[in-house]
Every structure is written in structure tokens, then in C-alpha cells.
Amino acid sequence: MSARTITPTPTRSPWVELIGGQALALGGAFLFAALVGALIIRAYGVSPLEVYRIIWVYSSSELSDFARVLANATPLIFSGLAVAVAFKAGLFNIGVEGQYIVAMLTASMAALGLDFLPSALLLPAVVLNGMLGGALWALIPGLLKVRTGAHEVVTTIMMNGIALSLVAWALLDPLKSSEQGLVDLRTDIFTTKALVPTIATSLGLEEQIPGSVHLTWLFPLALLSCALVWFLLFRTRLGYEIRAIGSSSGSAEAGGISIRSLQLKAFVISGALGGLVGLNNLLGDRGYLGHNYEIGLGFAGITVAFLGRNHPLGIALAAILLGMLARGQEGIAVTFELPSETLIILEGILILSVVIAYEMVRRGLARRRQRAVRAEERAISTEGAEDAPA
Amino acid sequence: MQNKRRTWFALLAALMVVAAACGGDKTTTPAGGGESAPGEEVSDVKVGLALDVGGLGDKSFNDAANRGLQQAIEAGLVSEQNTKLIETNQTGSNRDANLVNLLDSEYDLVLGIGFAFSEGVNQIVDDYPDQFIGIVDGFADEAPNVANLGFKEHEGSFLVGAAAAMKSKSGTIGFLGGQEGTGLIEKFEAGYVAGAEAVNPDIEVLVEYIGDDVGAFVDPTKGEALSENMYDQGADVIYHASGQSGLGLFKAAVAADKLAIGVDSDQSLTASPEEQKLILTSMLKRVDTAVYDAIQNVVDDTWEPGFITLGLAEEGVDYAVNDFNDNEDLLSTDIQTKLDEFKQQIIDGEIEVPEKP
After folding, report:
1. pLDDT (tens digit, 9 = 90+) per residue, A49-101?
2. How does strand B279-285 pair with strand B259-264?
3. Which of B188, B155, B154, B184 shows the shortest CA–CA distance to B174?
4. Which pLDDT belongs to residue B34?
5. CA-based max dimension of chain A
């Protein structure tokens, strides 16, 4: 919040301005959401400060709490990335939900069918099969989009519904466990070779992090995926082309880029990432596919991508933030007489404020740049040429 | 620009003032630092209930569990601020997390309301040796602090079997079972048949099972088809023990305009108006009693682990009387009187209800 100046400050690079502006936007949005949230919490006769303290305490006071947060964040990173890759190509993949549900099914088929393989082969096969399932489920709306022009929002939503029914059918019939005396509908329990070990057991931290915390090596894989997606988007030709059709499909086509095949590629990559969403639940927690798997992770990915500005780093941070809020929600549930929906409302307000704040900052920066350019023009006419910071 | 910024700050400042003013008085105390109990006899036992899918307002297990908890509070066993209810998300995928959070918050007794908590408890029980864990309808592995709170379903089924036989004009009644072969649903069948025969030794009981796996509990279509078939064969009352598949029975009852009997909780309360007229009664598992007794046992230091089964004597099972069936068309006073006599005879041991058909 510097004083108004007519001359631009050449020492400040646009990067600093952008990051500073985004930090300011985030900070302001958080403050605003916290204040509005305080009013809502207060309406229930509970102290807002105490609620915020509990969110903090439950998500970070002990190593195990933070591990729970990261475990919560793991699927959200994958789904955020999946949404973002499609979004960068100008596509709305609302179907991450269905893609991860189908991927859980295909991954389960691999875990059950290939159980003769050694762990070093089985685990990658299971994970790849999940990605394949997600990619295939995304391929269908992708093909419909490029061949018939059917809008991907409509088709992916439909595919979500089909995915739910497909898994329900698979659990009722072909994949149903033959175990006697079961009271739950599920597949057979996978061989332990197909399960992803928790970080705690691998590092000997069982004392601090109990077995009920499902922070597995899929979390580092999620971070690695962030790096890979960043590399793909910003350091490869394919990524450049994806971003080009996303920001301006007309000029991209004029520049010789084939939009259709790129849209299809982006959709399939998005689906493959989406295929990883359910794996922490499947391979790090239950070790079987049952009818009570977690739903909504794909839709949460839209929020994550939005909060993270479709940037892999932002997505990782946004996923951890939402992981903290989810953990905080558990804390609120055991501590206060507040409806569990309260935190969902808070989350909604936060997302809304972040979106508005980003937009305000973006416009503010654009205005500054315009002013800077105008000032530059005046400076050029008097002093001579110098590089403009824009 | 400057003006806009000023309005923005003014708005923020105003909100801050409001929030600060509101946040002044603290009325809630976080769990862990509970206030001292008002009465002297009230124990300082902390009780947490992890509800299952459906949550409060389900007119079924969750509501019944809450009733049991409220009764315990009213009876002065525990104080209200030492109790906690947690609901699951839509699919119940956070069921186990809720239970763990209650245990982490040092609730002395944590109750999982539904069999689905059983497997999760097996995984975490070693971490919480000093707290009591109870699972309604549970089947968790043996552990010194874990109790599976079950019910003598055959005793309750005896009563509704007797009601069915008293109500039947054709002399034929039906039983729709869910999963065959585990022995669990056979208990319902055995009690039902015994109850019917106690009223009318010549009664014919048609028995159909939906399947031999757990899918049998989620197949209303097959439930409807089998029920239709039994109604066609002359049954005029059918009792089901088949979970969601029983919804098919109620549909078939409406189509045939014949009577049906619900199971587990008072199913009249969740049925459609057409179905309510035809649901004679329901065999109740008294989840409220199970919750109340579990709390009492912890307070009195008489907790026992393992499989606890509550029968008629413990008010663990019953038949349902509600606004819809408490009339001469359905469960008449005569029938209720007769059922209460049977109930007493079972409690007194004059009638022994078989567990196997």
C-alpha cells in the first residue's frame, strides 16, 4: 500500500508485485472470511476465537495432527491438479469425481487380479491402472467434445452418475467378496503387497503418529506430481500449446496449433491425474473397495484449483489449507455444539472472498501497469529510452 | 481509488468492532475443561456417541441412541456438558475418524451407533486401552474394553409373529429374510414362527430369503418380487428382516392391500402415508436401552466386555406402538394385551424362544 506516485518504481519487478498482490489478496480475504465467520459462529452462542483456536490446535498442535492434515490434502492435490490441467486448456473437467471413482474400480481390479506379482511390480501396476481408468473415463467426454462438440460440463456430470452406478454394480456382482459372514458390500481385501505403506511406519514414527492416520507415500507422490505438472505446463511444448489454446484458442489455431487433439490430450492427462485421487483411500486406508468410499473429492478439486489459481504450487498450498479446515471441522465437531455445516459455510465464504480479492488485486495491478506505461511514455519523450518494467 | 480503499477499510473496521464486541463473553467451554457438575450424584463420566449415516432426525437408530443419551442425562447419570454426539458425512467414510476423535478427546465411553463401526474399532482398539468402546449391533473382535451391544432379535420377533398370527384371516403369513446362512436372520425367522405358532398351531408360514450374501440387504426389487409372490400364495401379513430390501415389501403390501411388519426401528415413522396404513407393527431393537445401559454400566463400574445381548427382560427388544397402528384396524387393544402377556411369559421364562428355525 505505497503512496500514490506518478512515476513507476523501477526497482520493483512485476513478479514481486504479482506475488505481493496475491499475498495481500489472500490475507485480506482470510481476514474478511474470519470476520464474517465470527458473526455466524457467534449467532450459535459460541466464541469465534475459541473455534479458530480449536481449528488451529487440531490441525497443527501435534505431529500426528499435521500428518492428518497432509493425509487429507493428498487426494485434494491430485484432484486440484486434474482440474487445473483441463482448465489451462480452457476445459472444465467437472468429471474428476467420476474419474477417480472409476479409477478406484480399475485399481482394485489390478490389486485383486495381479496379486501374484511381487510388491515392486504390483504397486506400480495398481497405481497405473488407476490412472488408466481415470484417463479412459475422461477420454469419453473428451472424444464427445472434439468429435461432436458436446459440452464437457454436461457430459462429465453425466459420466459421474454412470461411474457411481458402475461401481455399485461391480460391488454387487463381479467384484463382490466371496468371504462368508460379511455384513458390508465390498471386494476381497487386497494383498498387503498392493498397499501403500504409511510414512510413519517407513520412518519408524509409529509412536508419534498412530495407525489411524493414513499419511502414505502417496503424499510425496502428490508433491512430485505438482512438480511434473508444473514442468509439463511451463517447460514443454505440449504445455505451452495447452496454455495457448486455453488463453486464446483463436490465435492458437491461427498459429498452427490443432485445438482438438490438444483438448483431447489435456482431458486425458487430467483424467489420469484424477485417477490418483481415490488411491490414498483405497491403498493407504481400507485395503478394499467398499460401498462407503469417500465421495466429493473431485468436486473439492475444483475448489482447490480455484484457490490455488490453477498453479501447481498454489494447488499444493490450497489442498493443505483445505486439509487443515477439514481437520478443524473434526475438532469443532468434538468440541462445540455447532452444526457441522458451519465450517462448510466458512469455507464457502473464504473461497468467495479469495476470488473477489484476487480479482480486485488483478484489476488494481492492471491499472498500475497502465499508469506505469503512460508515465513511461512521458519519460521516454523527455529523457530517452529505458526498459519499462511491464 | 483512494475513496474506494477508504470504504473498504471502513467496512473491515466495522466488522472487526462487531466481531470483537460479540466475542466478549465466553459461554462455551471446550471439551477437556468441563465445568463442575451441578448435582452431587452426577458422575464426571464423559460419553461420546459417534452416529452413523442418517444422523439425527433419522427416526431410527441415531435418534434412538440420542434418546438413550438424553435419558441418561435426565436420570442424572452424566452431565450434559460431558456428552457429545458426532454425525458422519453422507457416505459414512469418516465414521472411524469420528470415533478416534472422541477417544482422543478423552471421552470415557465412546459408543459407535451401528455395526459398521466394528472393523474400524478392531484397528484402533490397542491405542485406547483405558477407555470403554461400545458398538451397537457390533461384531468387533474380543478386547478387554470393547462391548458389542446386541439384541435378542428372536424374542422381539416372537411378539410380532404372534401379532401376525392374530391378525391373519387366511391362516398363512410370510417371512422375508435378507442374507441366508449366517444364522443371524434365521434368529428372526425362528422367533417369528414360534410366536405365530403360539397363537395358531396350524398356521402356515411362508419363508423366503433374498440371497446368500450381503447384497441381499440392499435389493428392494427382489424384496418386492418375493413379497408379491407370498401375498399371491395367500399370506396376508409379511414380516421382513432384510434391511433396505424391506422397502420392497412395503411397496408390495400397498399393491396387494395386505399387511406388513417392519424391523429394527419403528418403520411406520419413515413410511409413506399409504404404507403407514398397512404396517401392523415393527420389531424394535431398543438402541436407546443399549446406550442407556452402557452408560449406566460405566458409571456404576459394572462394564462388561464381549457380546452383550439385550432381550425382553432388559427392554432390549419390543414391538412398536405408534400413532398409525394404535387402533382397532391394526394393532387393537386385544392384540396388545395378548402380546404383553406373551412378553411377560418370556421374561418369566415360561416361554423359551428358539434361536434356530
Report:
1. 999 999 999 998 889 999 999 999 999 999 999 999 999 999 999 999 999 99
2. parallel
3. B188
4. 39
5. 89
Mean pLDDT of chain B: 89
Query: Residue A249 domain-assigned?
Result: yes
B1 contacts in A (CB within 8 Å)?
4, 367
A314, pLDDT greater than 90:
yes
Task: Specify if A268 maps to a domain.
Answer: yes
* pLDDT the model gives residue A360: 87
**Overall domain count for chain A:** 1
In a domain, A155, yes or no: yes
Question: Is residue B45's pLDDT more than 90?
Answer: yes
- Residues of chain B with C-beta less than 8 angstroms from the C-beta of A183: 115-116, 139, 214
Query: Considering only CB atoms, which chain A residues are within 8 Å of B97?
Result: 212, 330
- The contacts of residue B67 (CB under 8 Å, 6+ apart) are B288, B291
CA distance A193 to chain B (A): 19
* Whole-angstrom distance, CA of residue A270 vs CA of residue A273: 5
How many CA atoms does the CB half-sphere of A104 hold within 13 Å?
36
Distance between A277 CA and the closest CA of chain B, angstroms: 15
- Could you give the CA distance from residue A172 to residue A155 in angstroms, rounded to a whole number? 26
pLDDT at B37 over 70: no
What pLDDT digit, counting tens, does each position of B286-300 carry?
A: 999 999 999 999 999
DSSP state at residue B282:
E
Q: Are A349 and A36 in contact (CB under 8 A)?
A: yes
More confident: B39 or B254: B254
Within a 10 A sphere around the Cβ of B10, how many other Cβ atoms? 10
Task: Judge whether A31 is closer than 8 Å to chain B, CB to CB.
Answer: yes
pTM greater than 0.95: no
According to the model, what pLDDT value does residue B14 have? 52
What is the per-residue pLDDT for A20? 82
Closest chain B residue to A336 measured between Cα atoms? B30
Q: Does A300 touch chain B (CB under 8 A)?
A: no
Helix (H) or strand (E) holding A244: helix A237-247
How many A×B Cβ pairs under 8 Å? 108
Shortest Cα distance, chain A CAs vs residue B214, angstroms: 6
Common-topology check for domains B47-151+288-310 and B153-284+326-347: yes
Give me the residue spans of the domains in chain B. 47-151+288-310, 153-284+326-347
From chain A, the residues in CB contact with B87 under 8 A are 333, 340
The whole-angstrom separation of Cα A48 and Cα A40 is: 9
- Say if domain B153-284+326-347 classifies as CATH 3.40.50.2300: yes
Total number of residues shown for chain A: 390
Q: Which CATH class is domain B47-151+288-310?
A: alpha beta
> Domain residues for A104?
76-319
Residue B9 scores a pLDDT above 60: no
Would an 8 Å CB–CB cutoff place A54 in contact with chain B?
yes
Question: Is the Cβ of A344 closer than 8 Å to some Cβ of chain B?
Answer: no
Q: Is B207 an interface residue toward A (CB < 8 Å)? A: no
Contact yes or no for A212 and B96 at CB 8 A: yes
We report the CATH number of the domain holding residue A204 as: 1.10.3470
